[in-house]
Amino acid sequence: xxxxxxxxxxxxxxxxxxxxxxxxxxxxxxxxxxxxxxxxxxxxxxxxxxxxxxxxxxxxxxxxxxxxxxxxxxxxxxxxxxxxxxxxxxxxxxxxxxxxxxxxxxxxxxxxxxxxxxxxxxxxxxxxxxxxxxxxxxxxxxxxxxxxxxxxxxxxxxxxxxxxxxxxxxxxxxxxxxxxxxxxxxxxxxxxxxxxxxxxxxxxxxxxxxxxxxxxxxxxxxxxxxxxxxxxxxxxxxxxxxxxxxxxxxxxxxxxx
Length: 257
What we know:
- It contains 6 helices and 4 strands.
- By secondary structure, it is mainly alpha-helical.
- The protein folds into 2 domains: 9-32 and 180-256, no CATH class; 36-163, Helix Hairpins (Orthogonal Bundle), CATH 1.10.287.1490.
- Helix 2 (36-89) runs antiparallel to helix 3.
């Protein structure tokens, strides 16, 4: 791999601050989206879960309806047998045969009573499940509507920012590659540790940007000379002078526009 051309400390500081401005703009775009992508994902999962629940409940109802039909067929069968045994009783020649048929008739009558009891139980379960289905469908309709609004909101933001974000990501990569590997790694490490992802900040009113700790005049002078890369001992950020920051901000604003 070809060795990168040696660049001055000032050029490195400018490239670092430009990279920070680009990455901060990407952060802003993503902050606008905020929790929306996660909200949409959660709502999609919830809607899928509710749909599955309705499907399973409908299957349960269908299964119970099949059970009711089977019990009705069993009742018809028992009634047929009772009629048959009753007719046979009219033709018996002794008490033993009559009693035997009476027991069969009694048994079929009990089977009918049990089947009717089960039918009533199944009907109660169906009513209960239908109530849950109606409640679930109401919630599903509400969440589907909510999901539609959130998706439209997210789509609008994405449509508005996706081109800019894609360009900025490309630029971020380009500026990152222009730095030597050690400096780029340090930048990313600082960025992940500090608040708001600000790894490179300008001196503001004698203090590190976003900090209340005053920087000694001698250190401020060294930073303004742009001969070495200075790390703020309090915040751990890379420091640049206000003039350089303003120049790079004007340059990057033109690029963003």
